[in-house]
Design a protein that fits this description.
Metallo-beta-lactamase, Chain A; six-stranded mixed sheet; 35% helix; globular; binds zinc ion
């Protein structure tokens, strides 16, 4: 493993180290050289990105999550492109809340409250999640176009394929640079936390299937979105297997809680995804519930008798379920 202590260059493609070791809410960004240059996922932080403002003509977001879009607003003259699955919701902003799970957990009033909150400028007190950050407002609402999935197109001085890898979000994709043999694996980040599919449009089975797609790409190097940095193929694929196995480990943990006789509330209190001390954060609370509901649905489908799930969370999760409450 090579940490991204500085920029890492593969031909005309550079990996840019995110602030604070690219820990959430920062991420490693990708700069594609050219006139103009292209920037993928501007979440590396202002210190790394502000020097690039003049030269970047196009910004691509692999998905709508805060840590991958937060500095879109630093590039007002660049064209902003996102995937076709998420573009309309990115434009409306309310649709982002739907995909994150706000409409499932807190209903239409919760979505309206969120929009009012993030519309206000100013710093916010530190919080576990970036739910109230004004950059949500600044960096969404505008989309200048969409990029295609799974088709090679010109970007800067090279070409890229935005490989559709749903699961983390429904529109999530991993940029693959065939000439450089490089994949930006983004939120297949291999961190000890494990795969994240807690949003209303996240899907653990799809995230596992998409990992198999990543493994089939002809690439010698993979760049993670957080912490790890640049990995060679063998190390990345080996660790990817362990990373995806966390999904099944969570199944086992939820099954053990069910067999203890816990109800849904008792299962949430166990804090399988996030320690209970963080559950006061409204987004942590909704993601803990959404994740539990998804795993209980998997256990139910496998024939286990599971406790009832609150109606708003029952069936939540997956590519389509989120839209009902928006
Ligand atoms: Zn993400």
């Amino acid at each position: 493993m090579v940490s991204l202590t500085e920029r890492f260059r593969f031909g005309s493609v550079e990996a840019i180290n995110g602030s604070n070791g690219a820990r959430f809410p920062f991420c490693n960004s990708i700069l594609v050289g050219g006139r103009p240059a292209a920037l993928i996922d501007p979440g590396a932080g202002p210190a790394a990105l502000e020097p690039l403002v003049e030269g970047v003509g196009v910004v691509l977001n692999t998905h709508y999550h805060f840590d991958h879009i937060s500095a879109n607003h630093l590039f007002p003259r660049a064209r902003l492109l996102i995937n076709e699955v998420e573009a309309a919701d990115f434009r409306s902003r309310a649709g982002i809340a739907g995909r994150l799970g706000v409409s499932v957990a807190y209903g239409p009033d919760g979505v309206a409250h969120w929009l009012d909150d993030v519309r206000q400028p100013g710093e916010r007190p530190p919080a576990v999640t970036p739910h109230a950050r004004h950059e949500w407002w600044l960096s969404t609402g505008r989309v200048d176009g969409t990029y295609p999935f799974d088709r090679e197109f010109d970007l800067g001085d090279t070409t890229v394929v935005m490989v559709h890898t749903p699961g983390h979000t429904a529109g999530y994709c991993c940029p693959y640079f065939p000439h450089e043999g490089l994949v930006y694996a983004g939120d297949y980040d291999l961190t000890g936390f494990g795969p994240w599919y807690a949003g209303a449009d996240g899907d653990p089975a799809a995230m596992e299937a998409s990992a198999r797609r990543l493994a089939e790409l002809d690439a010698a190097h993979f760049v993670t979105g957080h912490q790890e940095g640049v990995l060679g193929r063998a190390e990345f694929l080996g660790r990817l297997t362990d990373y995806v196995a966390v999904i099944h480990r969570r199944d086992d943990i939820y099954l053990a809680l069910v067999r203890e006789g816990r109800d849904f509330t008792g299962i949430i209190e166990a804090g399988v995804l996030y320690p209970a001390r963080y559950h006061g954060d409204p987004w942590v609370a909704m993601w803990e519930r959404l994740t539990a509901a998804k795993h209980l649905a998997r256990l139910r489908a496998a024939g286990w008798a599971v406790p009832p799930v609150p109606p708003e969370f029952d069936g939540a999760g997956g590519a389509q379920a989120w839209s009902a409450g928006v």
